[in-house]
Structures are given as structure tokens and as C-alpha cells.
């Protein structure tokens, strides 16, 4: 059964494969233990669907985040954690791929972190406006400073800060602070 499944990667695309295993747990003795995912500790986590680059993308992200760990890898799936958030990358997507309709937000404590994530995640990808970028796999990311929320919640500062970051690609904390003070 394992060889038959491996020979049909498109058959496994989508959640039907995982639902099938959940409904029929008695099939587990037909598949090697490496085929199964580790239990995810978060009840909600993103599954990023790639055509064939799930493992490459996981390795790319694991090399960028300092608190990153590969949790499990099967022929079709990589499960990993980045800064405590679990992710699952899966091969077998058919269709248009990723869009900006879903983005992953990286909150940064200072400009050095913003610069690091902007450079590393943006390598081979596309810069957007307002701290957004697409990585080389097409996944959208927002690289934002921790202070942005407090600046945007201040009624007098928010319009000035918003105007400032709408002009930027990579967000610059010093420029946001200047804008907040009206300079």
C-alpha cells in the first residue's frame, strides 16, 4: 500500500488523505511509522500547500528563524516550528498557488530583526509595500515592528504613521516614530 500511495502523489493532494487515515486508523499497520505526522501541539496551525517544493521551503524557513525546529518529515509533508508556531508544508498542490489573501506576520523587536527577515525571506522573492513581501516560493509575509500596534492605536498618531508606512516597502522604525511625532 505504501508504494502504491507513493506512486500517486496527486491522489494524496488535499485533506481527503488525512481524513481517510483518521476514519480508518486500522490501516496504520500497512504504512511505516515515518509516514505519519507527529501530533501538533497547537490546535490551529497553517498548512502551506506546494506543488513539489514543500521540503525545500521548510528548509529555507528553518534556516532563517533562530528558534526553528524540524519536527517530522514524510515523503509529502514537512512539519516544523518557527519561533514556537507550528507549520505543515505539503506537496501535491494543483492550482494557482499562494496569494496575498493570506500572509504570515513576523513581529520584530527592533530594526535589526526587520532587516534580517526582510533580507532573508525576500531573497529571490518580491518586495511589496507596507512591510509586505513574497518569498521565492510565493508565500506572503508581513515584516512589522512590535511598536506598530501601539502607534496605530493612538488616535492622533495613527493617521500620520499610516501615511508614513504606506510610502515604505521595508518598514523603518525610526521613520515611523518621526511620523508619529509629526515630523
Describe this structure in words.
With 183 residues, this protein is α/β, with parallel strands linked by helices. It has seven helices and eight strands; from the N terminus they run ααβαββββαβββααα. It has helices spanning 2-6, 16-23, 54-62, 111-122, 148-152, 158-166, 173-180, and strands at residues 47-50, 68-73, 77-82, 85-91, 103-108, 126-127, 132-134, 140-145. The strands form two sheets. The protein has a four-stranded mixed β-sheet with strand order 1-4-3-2, with helices on one face. A four-stranded mixed β-sheet has the order 5-8-7-6, with helices on one face. A hairpin with a 2-residue loop joins strand 3 and strand 4 (85-91). Helix 6 (158-166) packs antiparallel against helix 7 (173-180). It is elongated. It starts with a helix and ends with a helix.
Average pLDDT score: 83
What fraction of the residues are assigned to beta strands by DSSP? Answer: 15-25%
Largest sheet: 4 strands, mixed
Radius of gyration, in angstroms, nearest whole number:
20 Å
Structural class: alpha/beta
**Series of secondary-structure elements, N-terminal to C-terminal:** HHEHEEEEHEEEHHH
User: Percentage of helical residues?
Assistant: 25-40%
| Coarse shape | elongated
Q: Please work out how many helical segments DSSP would assign.
A: 7
Task: Give the low-pLDDT segments.
Answer: 10-38
Number of separate strands: 8
The end-to-end span amounts to: 67 Å
Strand order of the largest sheet: 1-4-3-2
Amino acid at each position: 500500500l505504501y508504494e502504491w500511495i507513493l506512486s500517486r502523489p496527486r491522489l494524496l493532494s488535499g485533506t481527503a488523505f488525512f481524513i481517510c487515515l483518521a476514519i480508518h486508523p486500522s490501516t496504520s499497520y500497512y504504512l511505516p511509522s515515518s509516514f505519519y505526522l507527529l501530533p501538533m501541539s497547537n490546535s490551529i496551525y497553517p498548512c502551506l500547500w506546494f506543488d513539489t517544493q514543500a521540503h525545500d521551503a521548510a528548509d529555507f524557513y528553518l534556516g532563517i528563524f533562530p528558534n526553528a525546529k524540524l519536527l517530522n518529515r514524510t515523503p509529502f509533508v514537512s512539519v516544523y516550528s518557527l519561533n514556537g508556531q507550528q507549520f505543515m508544508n505539503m506537496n501535491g498542490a494543483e492550482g494557482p498557488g499562494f496569494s496575498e489573501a493570506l500572509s504570515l506576520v513576523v513581529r520584530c523587536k527592533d530594526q535589526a530583526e526587520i532587516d534580517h527577515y526582510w533580507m532573508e525571506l525576500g531573497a529571490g522573492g518580491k518586495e511589496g509595500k507596507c512591510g509586505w513581501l513574497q518569498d521565492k516560493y510565493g508565500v506572503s509575509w508581513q515584516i512589522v515592528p512590535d511598536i506598530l500596534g501601539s502607534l496605530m492605536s493612538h488616535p492622533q498618531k495613527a493617521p500620520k504613521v499610516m501615511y508614513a508606512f504606506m510610502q515604505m516597502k521595508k518598514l523603518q522604525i525610526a521613520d515611523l516614530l518621526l511620523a508619529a511625532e509629526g515630523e
